[in-house]
Amino acid sequence: MPALVAPPRHCIPDITRKVKGETDAHVEDLQPFACGLTGRSVEVLEPQSCEVQGIFPHWLQGQLYRNGPGVWDVETKSGETFSLAHWFDGLTVMHKFDIQAGCVTYRNRHLVKEMENYIREYNRPPNLTAYDDPCGSFMGRAFSTFVQAATQGLQTFEHYQDPETGKEGKVNVGVTVGQYRGNKLVSRTDANVLYELNPQDMEVIQQMNYSAVIPEVQGNFATSHVERDEAAGLTFNVVMDLTARGWGLYTLFCVPDDESEEPYAVAKVQDEPCYIHSFAATERYIYLSPQPLHAVPCTSLVTSHCCCCSPAPTEHYFIPILSTYTLCLHQSDDQFLCCCSFTATEGYLILILRTCCV
How far is CA 257 from CA 180, 190, 193, 228, 234, in A? Predict the structure, then answer.
């Protein structure tokens, strides 16, 4: 077995890089798989023709949208280069591929230019919370966002101004992209906030949240990976609210694409507060599993540690979509991190758990 190569610089969650600005490595100094993470994305606002190799089938036409971290390094006015320390902390770039008659055009947009301008002016991002805890570094944005939003509210991320234009700054929303109510194109993140985008140029039209369409859904945290019933035109998601007693209240809900149909809550589950990246759904069931790796907001107020493993067992919930009966499918005695694979057959969910006890 060959020796493991050293990870690229953007894979090393070293907070000192933010202070030292160690971003002068050349592309040739990086491993080949890291060359796309050199941090300097070029904004392409006008459609550019792409070279096509091969032939597209005649039925393959339309627009493909992608989003995700795309800007890690920002040249500051002080002459230094500020570098975001983790892959997931990169500033969002929206991508659009337009496929028509066998031809492809490409364009992109930096979604949070206000934040880029802020970093360029002050050599730091707004509302940056840094942790020494390795879990906080490993999960990057997820846990730093979790603690700040849980203890201060999501609005603490929203109040900064673009030093160049004076406009209100936007938060970094760009984990997944997809369809939403009324055939809207939206960019999502692991929080109860969405950006509606112009399908043509991907400019942000407005900021929204799930609570606006269904007030019963409260909380700052939502999964970025929603579940879709394309045939019925339904979007399912889950939002977590932190209760006064420190529990997580998970509200699973459904938002129809048709604006004449009312959104509704499917079920509510109270369990350990934790970061939930995704869940699963079939035609009949929603599967939810609050993992034991979770944030403790009260502890984080007095220490630099923001995540730990709960002594409580992990509960796996199967929730029928068309009834109010909630079934706790399984309770595991061991503390473990759970990676799930899902496949659906005739409306039933086959769940494959790959667990690692801790």
Answer: 6, 21, 18, 10, 6
